[in-house]
DNA sequence: GAATGTGAAGGTTTTCACAGCA
DNA sequence: TGCTGTGAAAACCTTCACATTC
C-alpha cells in the first residue's frame, strides 16, 4: 500500500468531488468513468486509474455509485470534517475570502482573523472580531487552528509565516506573491492569481490561430 | 523550432520573472541558475532547460544578465505590453480583483466591469462604471477586450462565457467553481481556490509525520 | 574555475488495451 | 454487453553529466 499520490491526481479528486455533487443533485444513481470524464474534460482511463489507487469503488458493467463515491472522495480529501482556519491580512483579497462560500461548503471554517492595522483590529467581519497580529502565536494555539491563509503584502509574509509555523500550524495557503520558506513538516501551497493570467497572455502571444499551419 | 512548451514550464517562467524583479531591485547584474533555483526551490538544471527552449540568454562561467533576462521573459510571457481586461461579476471575489495591484503590475488592465445587479450597474469601482451585462457582447467588442475574468456564481457562468466567446474574446480566466465549455480556439483557465485548501487537507489527513515510519 | 546549454538517462504520469466481472 | 481495474506501453517531464564557452 501507500504509493505516492501525485499532486495532479489530488487536484483531480477535487474535480471529481465537484462533479459528483452535481450528478447527485440531478439524482443520478451511478455514473461511468466516461460520463465523469466528459464532464470534466479528462479521459475515462485517467479517472479509473486515479480512483483505483484508493480502492475499488465501481461495479463492472455499471459504473460508480454517485453518492457513495462522493462520500468516499470527501473522506480521502479530508473534507468530510470541519477544519479550523485562520486568515491573516484583511485587505482586498482577505476580505473576499472571509465571505467566500465555497470554503465553508467544503468544511473550511474561517474562525480567526488577524491584521496589523489598528483601524481593523477589533472590527467585525462576518461575525469574527479581527485580532491584533501581535498575539497571533498565542491565539492560533488557543483556537487550535489547523490551517492558515496568508493574504498580506509580500514584504511581511515571511515574518508572519515564521510565527505561524512556530505556533505549530502544519498547513499554509499563501496568496502573497513571494516564495516562502517553511520547514519540511509544514505543507505550503501558493495561490498565484497573476500566474494564470500570464499563462493566458503567453498563449495569446505565442499560439494564435495562424501559427498552427506551420510545422517543425 | 516550436516545440511544445509545457504548462508547468510556462508557470515557472512567471516565477523566474518575479525572482528576477527582486534580484533587479537588489542591483544584481547577473544571477546563476543555481541562485535562481535556490530562490524558487527548483533545480538549476530545470531552470536552464526551461530557458534554453527559448534561446541562449546566459554566459558560461557567469550566469544570466538579470535585467536583460527579465525583459526577455516578460516578452515571452507577453507581459511586456498592456492587456485589455474585462471582469464580469462584482461580488466578493470580483471586487477584490478589481483592486488587485499584481494584475496591473503585470500589464493586465481591468477597464470594463459587468454585473446583472441593478444596484451595481452604473456604480463606480476604482474609476470604472459598472455596465449592464445585457450589453456585454457589444461593449466587449467596442472596448477591444482581449481577456475576460469570470467571477459570477457557477449557475450563470456558462451563459456568460457563451456570450464572451461570441464577442470574439480568445482568453478567459474563470473563478466560478464549474467546468466551462469553450471552443478549441479559446483559451480557458480555471482558478479554483478551494482546490488548494483541499490539497492541504488531503495532506494533513494522509501524510502526518507518524506515518513516515512505515514502508511498502 | 565557473556556469551555461544540451543530449541522454531516469523517473513520473498518462494512455492503451484487455482480462475479468456484473 | 458494458464498464471497471490494471499491467504494459507510450508520452511526457526532470535530472544527470559533461562538453563548451567565457
Task: Summarize the structure in words.
Two copies of one chain form a homodimer. Chain A is of the alpha/beta class and 216 residues long. Chain A has two domains: 7-77, Arc Repressor Mutant, subunit A, CATH 1.10.10; 83-196, 3-Layer(aba) Sandwich (Rossmann fold). Helices cover 44% and strands 17% of the residues of chain A. Chain A contains nine helices and nine strands. Chain A has a seven-stranded mixed sheet with strand order 5-6-4-3-7-8-9, with helices on both faces. In chain A, helix 2 crosses helix 3 (44-52). The longest helix of chain A has 19 residues, at 7-25. The first copy, chain A, is globular and about 60 Å long. The N and C termini of chain A lie far apart (44 Å). Mean pLDDT of chain A is 95; it is low at 211-216. Chains A and B meet through helix 1, helix 5, helix 6, strand 8 and strand 9 of A and helix 1, helix 5, helix 6, strand 8 and strand 9 of B. Chain A binds a DNA duplex (22 and 22 nucleotides) through helix 3.
Amino acid at each position: 500500500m501507500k504509493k505516492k499520490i501525485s499532486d495532479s491526481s489530488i487536484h483531480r479528486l477535487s474535480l471529481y468531488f465537484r462533479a459528483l455533487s452535481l450528478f447527485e443533485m440531478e439524482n443520478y444513481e451511478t455514473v461511468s468513468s466516461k460520463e465523469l470524464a466528459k464532464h470534466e474534460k479528462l479521459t475515462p482511463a485517467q479517472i479509473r486509474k486515479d480512483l483505483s489507487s484508493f480502492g475499488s469503488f465501481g461495479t463492472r458493467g455499471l459504473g460508480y455509485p454517485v453518492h457513495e463515491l462522493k462520500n468516499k472522495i470527501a473522506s480521502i480529501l479530508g473534507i468530510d470534517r470541519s477544519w479550523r482556519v485562520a486568515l491573516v491580512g484583511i485587505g482586498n483579497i482577505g476580505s473576499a475570502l472571509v465571505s467566500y462560500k465555497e470554503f465553508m461548503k467544503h468544511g473550511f471554517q474561517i474562525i480567526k482573523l488577524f491584521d496589523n492595522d489598528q483601524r481593523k483590529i477589533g472590527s467585525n467581519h462576518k461575525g469574527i472580531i479581527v485580532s491584533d497580529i501581535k498575539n497571533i502565536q498565542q491565539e492560533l494555539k488557543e483556537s487550535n487552528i489547523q490551517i492558515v491563509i496568508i493574504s498580506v503584502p509580500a514584504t511581511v509574509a515571511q515574518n508572519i509565516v515564521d510565527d505561524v509555523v512556530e505556533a505549530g500550524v502544519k498547513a499554509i495557503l499563501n496568496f502573497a506573491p513571494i516564495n516562502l520558506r517553511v520547514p519540511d513538516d509544514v505543507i505550503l501551497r501558493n495561490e498565484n492569481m497573476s500566474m494564470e493570467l500570464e499563462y493566458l497572455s503567453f498563449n495569446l502571444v505565442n499560439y494564435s490561430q495562424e501559427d498552427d499551419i506551420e510545422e517543425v
